[in-house]
């Protein structure tokens, strides 16, 4: 851990900097001036030196796409390697904040700088907003020292970038890292193919919960759309409709065709342990890879980083099963 001396604030949009329009709150530029005005009027402004860059275009995080993850990754790497920043604070909307934190955790493996994401439930100009508390708290963390890697700060909590989820849509303490079973050995090192310098490409991914009535036709329709990876949210410890042979065949055929299918628990405090029930074992035998106690956000972000790096299905499954940055262990 070390104190950051030259911080980049990367403003991507989101509620924290939104202004009212005729259609409702929308992302707005000029947030650096608003920050500096606020800090000049407050007596306990952080002393860390910072500059701000606005990502173009600014977006409501509900519109977040893989291309935006890649743009954030590029901006962060450029800030550290070209511009000499030794830390990056990302201001982000809350709807997909946990997804971006997870994705960046894998896109920035090996980067020698701390990256912290924060946002707010109310805009910075709103009465009783949480924006300034979250922003000042994040800046204070950079001043006191942070470990390299990606983390999320919200409502006084510092959370691992791959362990956080948004659990509330209105309360200020919207993000939590719930206890989830951890079961994987740590990768001995990060391969060059997964290093932050490795370019990534967009990937066709999907997330699908298991539910009563899920049929083979649903799965085959999804696989026929060309998805390269699927996060399957199973019941409890990794179970599903194991007496539906057509559904099992659809999963097996997709895996044989090169689709990577990973299983996580749809329970907020659950984990996949296939061997607990026969229903889980039959799913595993179709070719599913256990995500253990990984969150949906972490599983999706990791699949994106692995397949986006050009790994084939077997290699992607190998690295998915190992802990790369604390997401599984």
Give a verbal description of the structure:
- The protein is α/β, with parallel strands linked by helices and 329 residues long.
- The two termini are 21 Å apart.
- A 6-stranded mixed β-sheet has the order 4-1-5-6-7-8, with helices on both faces. Strands 11-12-13-14 form a 4-stranded parallel β-sheet, with helices on both faces.
- The model has no long low-confidence stretch (mean pLDDT 95).
- Helices cover 31% and strands 20% of the residues.
- It is built from 9 helices and 14 strands.
Keywords:
9 helices, Rossmann fold, 20% strand, 329 residues, alpha/beta, four-stranded parallel β-sheet
Q: How many individual β-strands?
A: 14
Task: Categorize the overall geometry.
Answer: elongated
Q: What is the H-and-E element order?
A: EEEHEHEHEHEEEEEHEHEHEHH
Separate helix tally: 9
What is the CATH domain class of the largest domain? Alpha Beta
- Give the CATH architecture of the largest domain: 3-Layer(aba) Sandwich
- Number of domain units: 2
Q: Identify low-pLDDT runs.
A: none
CATH topology of the largest domain: Rossmann fold
Sheet-strand content, in percent, reads 15-25%
Rg calculated over all Cα atoms = 21 Å
Structural class: alpha/beta
Query: Gap between N and C termini, in Å?
Result: 21 Å
Percentage of residues in helical conformation? 25-40%
CATH superfamily of the largest domain: L-asparaginase, N-terminal domain
Largest sheet: 6 strands, mixed
Strand order of the largest sheet: 4-1-5-6-7-8
Q: What's the mean pLDDT score?
A: 95
């Amino acid at each position: 851990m070390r104190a950051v001396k030259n911080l980049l604030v990367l403003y991507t949009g989101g509620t924290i900097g939104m202004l009212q329009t005729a259609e409702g709150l929308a992302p707005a530029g000029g947030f650096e001036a608003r920050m500096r005005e606020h800090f000049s009027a407050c007596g306990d402004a952080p002393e860390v030196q910072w500059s701000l860059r606005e990502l173009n275009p600014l977006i409501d995080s509900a519109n977040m796409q893989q291309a935006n993850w890649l743009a954030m990754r590029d901006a962060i790497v450029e800030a550290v390697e070209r511009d000499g920043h030794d830390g990056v604070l990302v201001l982000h909307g809350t709807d997909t904040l946990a997804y971006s934190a997870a994705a960046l955790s894998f896109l920035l493996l090996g980067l020698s700088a701390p990256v912290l994401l924060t946002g707010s439930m109310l805009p910075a100009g709103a009465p009783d907003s949480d924006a300034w508390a979250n922003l000042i708290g994040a800046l204070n963390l950079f001043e006191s020292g942070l470990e390299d890697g990606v983390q999320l700060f919200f409502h006084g909590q510092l959370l691992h970038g791959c362990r956080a989820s948004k659990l509330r849509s209105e309360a200020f303490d919207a993000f939590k890292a719930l206890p989830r079973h951890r079961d994987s050995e740590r990768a001995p090192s990060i391969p060059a193919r997964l290093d932050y310098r490795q370019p990534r490409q967009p990937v066709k991914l999907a997330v699908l919960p298991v539910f009563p009535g899920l049929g083979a036709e649903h799965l085959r329709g999804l696989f026929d759309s060309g998805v390269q990876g699927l996060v399957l949210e199973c019941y409890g410890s990794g179970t599903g409709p194991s007496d539906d042979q057509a559904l099992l065949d659809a999963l097996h055929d997709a895996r044989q065709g090169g689709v990577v299918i990973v299983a996580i628990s749809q329970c907020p405090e659950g984990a996949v342990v296939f061997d607990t029930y026969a229903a889980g074992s039959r799913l595993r035998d179709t070719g599913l890879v256990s995500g253990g106690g990984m969150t949906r956000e972490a599983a999706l972000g990791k699949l994106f980083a692995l397949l986006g790096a050009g790994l084939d299905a077997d290699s992607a499954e190998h690295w998915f099963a190992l802990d790369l940055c604390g997401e599984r262990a």
